[in-house]
Design brief:
Length: about 725
């Protein structure tokens, strides 16, 4: 059973935070047009068998043979990255002429243009009910490796890494680089802040206090590119890390064109757990980033905490809101309340007098812009109303003036009151500090991206959810713009904040079970996730309706249970190679799978439904029965028996065979089948349910989704 997780954390162990870094190299071909623009490409090549396992320096020399010139006319290197661990190839700046010439070279496999990726941001340990701490990610150029205090650097790390820092904190410029970086790159304040908060809140400092952290810079002032992310993954795998956390995404992309999916597959082959942000494109369906099955895709939920404010109308009605700026000097008497539908965005107040008033706003602009406009027009406060899509998700903001933010339902009531001059509308805004134990919680945040999985609809994504709304995290500069070293924490939201929670929990599981595969860790997190909130009722979405599996994944992570799941669904790299071959053929397999001799004709091909995943997605036609096979491994007690329990609406009929599984020893494997068919004519939407394997000690839950899902490939 899981006991005091931190006591297990003496393992040499690292959580990786990808954020910013990269060098730059490009090429020029004799005879090409000098005026032709350069574009960065990620180039997959197949080294000759005699150098396939050569050193990184030898591989780089061979990669350079594909370039007619190594520097530009300005002296800038053309070769940006030379990959050796997660990808056979390099990143370089090429003209179209040069690319066309390169494609004729022996060993060339494929090239795809570099694409931009985006940072996924817009009391947690206690809420998760475990002795965990978390960290976030991102960092400046040449980020230092941040290690938790009082623990030695793991032997697996290169000796060139700096010694452990006195405490978990944001890396500062000038530390050792964990990977090369583009020569002219600088770091924007937003990228560095993302790095710092990700490292502080997500990765080891809070969720796994004894984890060692290696921080890799993969973003710069100009943004984040997938060639840099791939280089970060390459460096992390080379350094021997155990967990990689990636709070970046760029929308849905075929896996054989997705640098994160490609690099993460190589990490998976080496037993490294990779967790990725689901994206912040919600609440719309099919809006996910990071959809490949070999990593954990993380959605964002709220915690049971509110930065409480109250809107007290003069008619006696009181509405609960939120505000980061909990002012102590506030009006003691009601203040006139103003609303004008023509000025509801609160950035322009022509012919609308708000002098000395509190104004009601339905904004589309950032808090800073609203606060500046209201104060300039003479207003003393603001009531912000969420738009309908945001629902009850309130992203706490600091407006630097008297403020409260309300849900659309409460906001409509305030607007109705303020719009009727007969009410002589007046209001008081008061504050109650930080309130814990709020309900419902957790709730899926409106911005958290949703399934179905666009690239492979038969693979449920996101996998799981974790706290990502209004999360306290370290900040690289003082939020009050001071310089005395105080106030270096901020409140941030996004799936970027949720991802490191899972990374830290994966770290704890690996410390308890160092021999577990990456798939086993993922299975444990998914099958033990909570389907109900703290009130015992189903987890809700931003509209306070029951959250679908496409919103919350299997549920909300439960760290304590995840360390002792009872059964796991394990899967090896060869199974994924069969899936890759079935979807992308030899061409795609040669890009994703680094193995020199991969050939789809020699691989048992597998569909998505044949993968031994802990979730089940079925698409039976009318009058058809779909049979799905799964294998579980006993990691609980010997001499244990599990019984199958299925709950699903009557529109679907599910049979499990055999209905019981008996295990004599730990490590024993058992296979079962799930037969799915429609008992009523298929509905237009989807039907959701659960399969539970129940023993005296454990409940192993797999989410089930049944619908009409068509594979894209």
């Amino acid at each position: 059973m899981y006991q005091n997780a931190s006591s297990f954390f003496s393992l040499s162990f690292i959580v990786i935070l990808l954020s910013i870094f990269s060098p730059v190299l490009c090429i020029r071909n004799i005879g090409s047009n000098d005026s032709e623009p350069l574009q960065t490409y990620i180039v997959r090549v197949q080294p000759p068998i005699e150098i396939a396992d050569a050193s990184s320096n030898e591989l780089e020399s061979w990669y350079k043979s594909f370039l007619s010139e190594s520097v530009s006319d300005t002296g800038e290197p053309r070769l940006l990255h030379s990959y050796s661990e997660v990808f056979s190839g390099f990143a370089a700046k090429l003209t179209q002429f040069e690319l066309n010439s390169m494609q004729k070279r022996e060993g060339f496999v494929r090239a795809f243009p570099e694409r931009k990726l985006y940072l996924q941001t817009t009391h947690t340990p206690e809420f998760l009910a475990s002795e965990l701490r978390v960290m976030d990610f991102g960092t400046p150029r040449r980020s230092a490796v941040a290690l938790s205090s009082a623990y030695s650097t793991p032997a697996s790390l290169p000796a060139t890494l700096p010694s452990p820092t006195p405490a978990c904190r944001c890396p500062q410029p000038g530390g050792r680089a964990r990977a090369p970086s583009r020569p002219a790159a600088t770091t924007s304040s937003s990228a560095r802040a993302h790095s710092c908060r990700a490292m502080s809140r997500r990765h080891g400092c809070w969720m796994a206090p004894r984890a060692h952290l290696a921080v890799y810079k993969v973003c710069s002032a100009s943004g984040c590119t997938d060639s840099d992310v791939l280089a970060g993954l390459d460096a992390a795998v080379k350094d021997g890390v155990d967990v990689i956390s990636i709070s970046l995404g760029g929308g849905s992309v075929p896996f054989d064109e997705d640098a994160i999916a490609i690099g993460a597959f190589a990490a998976f082959e080496k037993g490294i757990v990779v967790s990725c942000a689901a994206g912040n494109a919600g609440p719309f369906n099919t809006s996910l980033s990071n959809e490949a099955p070999w990593y954990i895709t993380v959605g964002a939920t709220s915690v049971d905490r509110s930065f409480r404010s109250y809107v007290q109308l003069n008619n006696g009605k009181v509405y609960e809101g939120e505000s980061l700026n909990q002012l102590t000097k506030i009006p003691s008497n009601p203040v006139e309340l103003a609303y004008n539908s023509n000025c509801s965005d609160c950035t322009f107040f022509k012919n609308f007098d708000i002098q000395g008033k509190i104004v009601v706003c339905k904004p589309i602009f950032p808090p800073e812009k609203i606060a500046t406009a209201v104060l300039k027009a003479g207003g003393i406060g603001v009531i912000i109303i969420n738009v309908e899509e945001e629902g009850y998700t309130i992203i706490a903001s600091d407006f630097h003036l008297l403020a409260s933010q309300l849900s659309p339902a409460d906001g409509d009531a305030v607007i109705a009151y303020a719009s009727d001059a007969r009410n002589n509308p007046k209001v008081l805004i008061t504050f109650n500090g930080t309130v814990l134990g709020t309900s419902p919680a957790p709730v899926v945040a409106f911005f958290s991206s949703r399934g179905p999985n666009y690239q492979s609809p038969s693979i449920l994504k996101p996998d799981v959810s974790a706290p990502g709304l209004n999360i306290l995290a370290a900040w690289p500069t003082q939020v009050d713009r001071g310089n005395d070293g105080a106030n270096t924490f901020n409140i941030i939201s996004g799936t970027s904040m949720a991802t490191p929670h899972i990374s830290g929990i994966a770290a704890l599981i690996k410390s308890v079970h160092p021999d577990w595969s990456a798939a086993a860790v993922k299975s444990a997190i998914i099958t033990t996730a909570d389907e109900n909130g703290r009130d015992g009722k189903p987890i809700l979405d931003e509209l306070h309706q029951k959250a679908s599996f496409f919103a919350v994944g299997a549920g909300h992570v439960n760290p304590s249970k995840a360390a002792d799941p009872g059964l796991i669904y394990d899967i090896g790299a060869n199974d994924y190679v069969g899936f890759i071959c079935s979807v992308y053929g030899d061409a795609g397999a040669r890009v994703i799978v680094r193995s020199h001799n991969v050939s789809c004709s020699k691989v048992t091909q597998k569909s998505a439904t044949e993968l031994n995943l802990p979730s089940i997605v079925a698409s039976p036609a009318w009058l058809e029965t779909v049979t799905i096979t799964r294998t579980v491994t006993n990691v609980g007690e010997p001499q244990s028996t599990y019984t199958a329990h299925v709950d699903i609406p009557e529109a679907v009929k599910i049979e499990v065979a055999p209905p019981t599984l008996s295990f004599a020893v730990v490590g024993e494997r058992k296979t079962f089948q799930v037969r799915v068919r429609w008992s009523l004519f298929p509905a237009k939407g989807v039907v959701e349910g659960n399969l539970r394997w129940v023993s005296n000690e454990h409940v192993v839950r797999s989410p089930i989704v049944v619908g009409n899902f068509k594979a894209r490939n």
